[in-house]
Structures are given as structure tokens and as C-alpha cells.
Design brief:
Two copies of one chain form a homodimer. In chain A, 41% of the residues lie in helices and 26% in strands. Chain A is of the alpha+beta class. A seven-stranded antiparallel β-sheet of chain A has the order 1-2-3-4-5-6-9. Chain A has a two-stranded antiparallel ribbon with strand order 7-8. In chain A, helix 1 runs parallel beside helix 6 and helix 3 (137-154) packs antiparallel against helix 6 (206-217). Chain A is globular. In chain A, 51% of the residues are buried. At the A-B interface, helix 7, helix 9 and strand 10 of A face helix 7, helix 9 and strand 10 of B. Strand 10 (268-270) of chain A pairs antiparallel with strand 10 of chain B, so a sheet runs across the interface.
């Protein structure tokens, strides 16, 4: 059986395609705008659906993408994915929302499943992290508490492990800071059926992690100073994604659709030289929170 | 003799420090603003002077940096620099100008010298490239013609080789386009004294490559559509520098001063999803010029 025809991959495909629709619908309801929908095919096998909403009332740029791809993995690509070379299939959902308002945080969530060697070798991965630019600790506690509930429900004891991994992964070592306030991140999970339950729980928890924060903050008046800090932090987001994010680099190196991969970048970002927050500003208050700390 | 004490490195240091002052002075004269000046020290040895002008009348963000660093190179860093592990010294000048006006192109120029093994192993490298966002072929011909003169004066027959290498290097493979209209690029040049003459000629030609274009274009009225395209192309500039530029990645990976390295990023950039130029626009006319072609 080809990796893409295994029940494991087909289950994942159904799961992420269903979630793509329900997540887009819930976000459209909040925004008032509509996600576009582009089907694309990959030359080597498979393809995906990219759904992007840009220039909305709530969402400045947001994408909710699914893809199911397959083919032959060469040695380099295999090393990157932690697999043996040969036939493989991969299925995933990847979501990034950059809101208009600096009071509403950016958010990312991703789940993925790799299958190789006719289904004998496989793993699941996933993650979710929040990138706020205004210090609302109660929002960060909420985000982590929902993630904790999802992880613990699927795999007791797993939240602490995945939270620590997230703090390590979504980090800009050249600045000694995280891109946001973390969340969870895990990779190469090979428990049956626990790992699929975990990615399902994570993906299904997305709306509960994020919408309450959106609803609480979207009506707030924000200042030009808030916007400036948001654009600086979006610059850091770009730095992380292009310098370090494995999914971005792996996707581009293996000929993925550039526009679908780079939907994760904000519509606008700033890279001022040697930027410093104003003394006593909310930005200055936010900066220490881009370090690992217990939230839930 | 330590690599940093060799006449070779000391000559390079004098050359780039003198040029830093004269280039900044000429640019300040055009802009009306002043370059800042930050001296920094590197923990492992050496340091540099970072000079940045931001928010000027002409220059939105520009940096002219010199650094002279030394220490012990470990195996990974040595592989990146194409050297043997052990004591090394490196000296260079790195310059990036992102103007306010979309009619005035961004420009980059860099020269560098590596010395290792007590001066027995060494090489020079350099490059200059132009990133315009408005189709003025006569400006691109001028830029290349001056570079050609500099290269041919120092090393007859070298322009064609370095021009081709630049077309290959300053490329975004995931978009199958160059970041600009090219220039010259070379690395690991080991001719004595030809290679030092070449980097000197390149660095000294900078003002002649760029100022005539600045003077010709800075007074032009530009439109919001011009600005939009400039910001999109600045996004591509960021993509290149963070995804592919070896100097940026090597500098950050080896603990260089992040703000000095990332001065090359524009103050503002845009990453809209699946951006397309308006039919019949000047942007549409510009896009085919981001492919290799003979200019001089």
C-alpha cells in the first residue's frame, strides 16, 4: 500500500480538511470577510488547499492551509524529516493569523503526519503558539490553560514536555528571546493511537484557545505606539520564520508552493535599527514576557 | 604573527575604515542627515563600527559598517568560511542603502578579507548589487558599466565572471527571480596583489556606481503604487537575506552583533499573499528585469 493510501494518512486528511472549513467559517463570522480558496497541485505528487483572508476588519493577513503530498524522499529531504529515504506521504494543517489590532495577538497552529515505507514508519507533530504585542497576562494564561487541557486529555503529563519544547523551538537565539509567549510544540510522536488523538485534540482546541481573546480585545482602541511595536514584533516573526523555522525552510527547499508556505509572514513588518521601547511604555512591559515562564 | 597583525589584514583595515568615512560623508551631504556611530566589541576578539542613518530625507535606512574580528574558528565555522579550523582574522566593509523614494534603488556593497594560519592562508571577497523597483534601464546600464570598469581595471576579464556569479548568488530560488538586477560577486580570491586591488577598486567605485542614479532620480514624484511595489520588493529583499545570504546566516550563527548584521534589512517591508502587479503598470514592466541579462 502506498503511504498516501494508508488509513492513517486518510484519517488525518479527513480531520484537517474538516477543521479547515470549520476554523475558516468561525473566523469569517468574526471578521465579516471571506477566506479565498486556492487548490494547488504538487509536481511530485499531491497538493493542497490554501485559504487566505487579507485586509479584513479583524484579520490583516491570515491563512488556514491544508496539504497532502507524496512522492519519493531523497536523502537530504529524508534527513530533514527524520525519516528513511524512499516513498513517503505527508498531510497537515497550518494556520497563522495576523490581526489588524495590536491588542489582538498573532497566533499559529500546525498539525502534521508523516508516513513512509508503506505505512510501517510514521510520526505525528504539531504546535501552537501565541505572539502578542500587548501585555495581557490573563490572555496568555487562558491560551496555555486551554492547550494544557487539550494535551492532558489526550496524553496525561504531556503539556509540560510540549510546553518546554515550544519555549526552546520558537526562539530567536540571536536576540535571546522567544517570538511570542509560547504554547506547545512536539514532533516525531509515534504512539498508537495516542499521537493522532493528541494532534486532533490540539487542532480542535484552536478556536477555544483563540476566539475568547479575540472577543475580549478586538473592540479596544489602540494607539500609534501600539502599532509601531506590533510592526517591530512582526519583523521578529519574519526573522524567526525565515532564519529558523524548519517547516518553512524544508518546504521551500523541497519545492513547495512558495505563496502557501510564506502565507505565515505578516502583510507588513518593520525592521528599524536598534529599536528600543519607550521607558514606561506597555511595550517595555511586554518584552520580559518573551522569555519562558509558567503560564498554566 | 597572529592573523590580525599581518600586513594583509592591517592594509584591509585601513582601506575599509577610510572608505567608511568618505562614503558616509558623501551620503550625508546628499541626505542632510547624519550617520550614527556605534563602536562594538566582540567577545571572542575584535569588533567594529556600525554607522546607520535612519529616517532621512533621502535614506529611509542605510548602514555602512566595518568590522575586524579574530579568534579561533571551530570546525563548523571554518567549513562555512572555506578555511581550516584554527586562528583567524576577518576584516570587511558592508553597506546597504534603502532610500525613501521608490524611484531610487536600494544598493548593497561588501568587501571582506579572511586570514588564517598566521597569514599563510587568506582570501578576499566582495560584491555589489542594485535592487531597483522602477524600470530605468539606463540606470542599470550605468551601475554595471562602472562596476565593469572597476573590475577590468583591477583584473582584466574578471567582470563577466563576477557578474555571472552575482546573478547566481543574489537569487530567490523559491521564486525563480533575482532580488534586483545584479552586479558583481566574488569570493575566495587568492591572487597577490590582484585580489586586494580588486576589492579596493570595487569599494572605491561605490560612490560612482550609485550617486549619479541618486542625483538623477531623487527629485522625481512617486505614486502610492510605486511605494507599494517598493515595499513588496523589500519583502523579497528580507526573504533573500534571511533565507539565503551566507554573510547574514554565518554572522548570526557565530554570535555576531545582531543589530549590525540586520542593518541590511529595510525599515519597512510587505509580504502580501500572492501579490501580482497591475496590468500595464511600471511594476509589471520591472519584473522581467529581475532575471539575468547583459547590462554592460
Amino acid at each position: 500500500m502506498l503511504p498516501q493510501d494508508t488509513p492513517r494518512l486518510q484519517d488525518m486528511k479527513r480531520c484537517v480538511e474538516t477543521l479547515q472549513e470549520s476554523i475558516c467559517a468561525a473566523l469569517e463570522e468574526r471578521d465579516g470577510g471571506r477566506f479565498g480558496s486556492e487548490l494547488w497541485q504538487r509536481a511530485g505528487g499531491g497538493g493542497g488547499r490554501t485559504r487566505v483572508l487579507q485586509g479584513g476588519a479583524l484579520i490583516d493577513k491570515g491563512g488556514v492551509n491544508v496539504s497532502t503530498v507524496w512522492g519519493e524522499m531523497d536523502t537530504a529531504a529524508a534527513a530533514g524529516a527524520g525519516m528513511a529515504p524512499g516513498p513517503f506521504a505527508a498531510c497537515g494543517l497550518s494556520l497563522v493569523i495576523h490581526p489588524v489590532s495590536p491588542r489582538v495577538p498573532s497566533v499559529h497552529m500546525n498539525v502534521r503526519c508523516f508516513v513512509a515505507e508503506s505505512g510501517r514508519d510514521w510520526w505525528y507533530g504539531g504546535g501552537a503558539d501565541l505572539s502578542p504585542t500587548f501585555p495581557y497576562p490573563e490572555d496568555f494564561v487562558h491560551f496555555h490553560a486551554v492547550l494544557k487541557g487539550a494535551c492532558e486529555g489526550a496524553a496525561p503529563g504531556s503539556y509540560a514536555v510540549h510546553k518546554k519544547r515550544c519555549d526552546e523551538y520558537f526562539t530567536l537565539p540571536h536576540r535571546n528571546e522567544m517570538r511570542g509567549i509560547g504554547g506547545v510544540f512536539f514532533d516525531h510522536q509515534r504512539e498508537d493511537p495516542g499521537s493522532f488523538c493528541l494532534v486532533q485534540a490540539l487542532a480542535e482546541a484552536f478556536l477555544a484557545t483563540y476566539l475568547p481573546i479575540v472577543d475580549r480585545r478586538r473592540g479596544e482602541i489602540w494607539t500609534p505606539e501600539d502599532k509601531e511595536f506590533q510592526l517591530v514584533r512582526r519583523g521578529r516573526y519574519v526573522e524567526f520564520n525565515l532564519l529558523y523555522d524548519r517547516g518553512t525552510r524544508f518546504g521551500l527547499a523541497t519545492g513547495g508552493r512558495a505563496e502557501s508556505i510564506l502565507m505565515s509572514l505578516p502583510r507588513e513588518a518593520a525592521f528599524p535599527y536598534d529599536w528600543k521601547p519607550r521607558r514606561g511604555s506597555r511595550a517595555e512591559e511586554m518584552i520580559p514576557l518573551y522569555q519562558p515562564r509558567p503560564w498554566a
